[in-house]
Amino acid sequence: MTAIAHIIDDDEAIRDALAWLLKTRNVPCRVWPGGEAFLAEWQPGWRGCIVLDIRMAGMSGLECFDLLNTRGSMLPVIFITGHGDVPMAVAALKKGAFDFIEKPFNDLDLAALVEKAIAHDCAQQRAAADRDTIEARLTTLSTREREVMELILDGLYNKVIADRLSISMRTVEAHRSRVFEKMRVRSAVELAQMLTTLRS
User: How many Å apart are CA 105 and CA 191, to the nearest integer?
Assistant: First the structure.
């Protein structure tokens, strides 16, 4: 799915100016007159970022942001703020907003921030896909293979694992080989790194 910058602002002139700015940077974008319109069409699979005015008629940017969080949206949110809104924007950062930019802002600064937010979203998606792949590989392990894997990750030698599980060393070696094959790794170090990715 194409990554899109969603511009949510109740001021049509600002929406148009921001859309023009992003198009000159080859950033696909879509404009919305308010949080209500955006939320009515929002889908969990959307990729990109949101540029959200913190103060709007009707639903405020903060209210929109809170509802997106409630729905589990992972889209990075950049707030556009006036001078008096900075404390609110800082509070939003603590709730997971990506960043904020204060009016009047430099066009290039905003465009760079949008590009950074989209890159962050793409990286998040890749990490999630990697986690899903690792989870799928883990489901192929038998109970005994999982036991052997955990002891391998504890740094134990085959002989110690054999004693711990009351099985032969040859059986440990067979399980170890299957764990590496199913997890598609070549060493215990690589296996540990893979599972660190999963747990991070």
Answer: 47
pLDDT averaged over every residue in the chain: 93
Same domain, 111 and 14: yes
Assess contact for 89 and 109: CB atoms under 8 A. Answer: no
Q: Are residues 94 and 145 in the same domain?
A: no
Domain membership of residue 129 (yes or no) is no
Exposure string over 51-90, b if 16+ CB within 10 A, otherwise e = bbbbbbeebbbbebbebbeeeebebbbbbbbeeebeebbe
DSSP letters for 53-82: ESS-SSS-HHHHHHHHHHTT----EEEEE-
pTM for the whole thing?
A: 0.74
Q: Which of 124, 154, 179 is the last residue of a domain?
A: 124
Q: What is the pLDDT of residue 141?
A: 95
User: What is the distance between the alpha carbons of residues 64 and 68, in angstroms, rounded to a whole number?
Assistant: 6
Count of structural domains, the chain: 2
